[in-house]
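Anyone else keep sequences and structure tokens together like this?

Example one:
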Amino acid sequence: MTSLNDIRSGFLDYFNRNGHTIVPSSPLVPRNDPTLLFTNAGMVQFKNVFTGVEKRDYVRAVTSQKCVRAGGKHNDLDNVGYTARHHTFFEMLGNFSFGDYFKERAIPLAWELLTRDFGLPKDKLLVTVYHDDDEAADLWRKVAGLPDSRIIRIATADNFWSMGATGPCGPCSEIFYDHGPSIAGGPPGSPDEDGDRFIEIWNLVFMQYEQIDAERREALPRPSIDTGMGLERIGAVLQGKHDNYDTDLMRALIEASAHATGVDPDGRGRIHHRVVADHLRSSAFLLADGVTPSNEGRGYVLRRIMRRAMR
């Protein structure tokens, strides 16, 4: 079995071999964006690099970023425990290009990692592209040999990524894993897309614009790449699981909760153990990054997380 630690290391090492600088995770409290409650994506620490405000001594980066989605636009708190894939805390694996390479390199790098290094069957993968992104669709045909039936064009915001109301944005291409016909659900863009058969595992964002306000969008100084892959999601796929909470890391926390409480982890207390496992992670990392329980802002969110874990 491939552990989540091994997957993280494999991802970082692969991109490091391909000329990317390994950059440490930034704190969960954003240093450079007062509009964000918590760091919720790998690109947050690079926002000013994408917009040209800040320069780094590297043009390619790879990270495993600590993320919390428990407030603001991205809030998964109330879903935790009831679904197979929602978390308040998770790690986002990502590779980044700051004006160095674009789609022509990002797509081959992703495909090679998934199919060669991670060993995923090619016939289990399909992709989406923004509806008018012919370049990305052509690259998927050329690089991966995907037929048009497995390159799905999406015209909605699902395939146009934005950080928020303002900031860097651009069309994206999402890679999905097909768990097979024994699981209910249809492919992305279909009426049954909310089922669990087809699971998004990686989002490649082709960062081309900066959203200035609701009416104005400007081209970035140089087209760039921002990708994000949830460690827990790819871990479930590589460990042959259909549920993030059955991966080695989450299962260890659930077993610890069951041992401490004496409640069967797979019986009536199943949801509660999942809540405890997830909320322990987010609480521990938020506390480590200097957030303390309070009645407002980040501290209030932490207090809600801790209270929900103790119910």
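And example two:
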Amino acid sequence: MTERMDYQSLLALAKEVGCKVTDLVALSPSNDPFYAGRADRRQAAEWFMGIWEQFGFRHGAHLRRMHYVLISQPLPIIRPDGQPYTNTLTNWKYFGKASLSARYLKMLPFGALADRRNDPPIIYADDSDNMPDPDCYVTDGHAGLAIPRMEIAKPYAFASGFTARQDFLVEVWVEKSTQNDILVPLASKLGFNLVIGMGDTSETLARQAVERIISDGRPTRILYISDFDPSGRGMPVGLARKIQFWIQELEADHLDVTLQPILLLPEQCVEYQLPRTPIKETDRRGPKFEERFGEGATELDALESLHPGVMAEIVTREVGRYLDPTLARRIRAAEADFDAAISDAEHHVLSRYDLDRYQAQADAARTAYMDVVTPIEESLEELLPEISGALDDAVPEYDPDDFPKPRPTDPDPAPLFDSKRSVIEQGDHYNRWKGK
């Protein structure tokens, strides 16, 4: 596929071959990357870039958090079509497509937006730059008979066991990975386990949690973070019930385990004036949820978007109920004091013994050895290059034709995509796949 494709070239090609331009578009006109230059998509991309500059978003911005910034403005943001940008699914989809067009049109650098929905690829393929080049290398050799001066390894003492072990094991469970940029550093700093799920907790994760708690042996406090919506409201109950089951099945009634939701709570949505998103009509739990809490739901992303740092403050406060953030520092100070006392005792004891006399005897023995071995080393340094050269002449050369090669490939005769096809030919394959 050597032709460079964009919106204008697709229009020209369609005219040349006498087909509709949409026949050359593999995806929908609103999503196809080569169709991003269409007037409405370019307009949306320019609008998105205006938003980007207006609010000072920078590399690493999260699209969902940007959405919450927009819908929380005192005066509504206006879309290119004149409609206000409000908290609806339609506007959210428009925002996503506008950002995509901005990237396809190279207005926004690729990678500028953070992707926290997808796991990174797992790479096991051979490094294509590591090309086989069988050969033989001959070393020069080295006499290596000299020995360095060795000092007596005197007895010494050191402190041990000054480990900061909290009274409680704390685990923070969160329903999705979009908050990793906040929670992962916090877990490292405060010393709690972080469990990241995708929606409702699986039986496997719950069982592993109980096994982990049994192995640890300490009272355990689980703090749960989820969206404020019908699904998120039920997730802590789902995890708690499964943990309750596995405590019974693993005969671990002696465990001390509690679970408490800490985010997002209805009172937090009120306190921080977080926007509510309409609940899907297909969610049968929606009416009961809204009867109890009012209209709409709220995502976790809204809190960090509108009140940066508050999520970290809440998690730090709740974790701090059980973990002492000063413990590690105070233990390090106690260890330093003990180390000083050990050092004084060590100096006092070693000063009573004349180890220098033994060190002098060892140094004298080494000097005598070096007097003997130095001439030998000098002779070897002259001889070893000769031996290395003889070995280099003697070793056979490897015939590259003898190197094992991959078996013959068995490629698919008609893959869905082939980069060597023309635009028309590749389009035909897309259309056949889609049944057109």
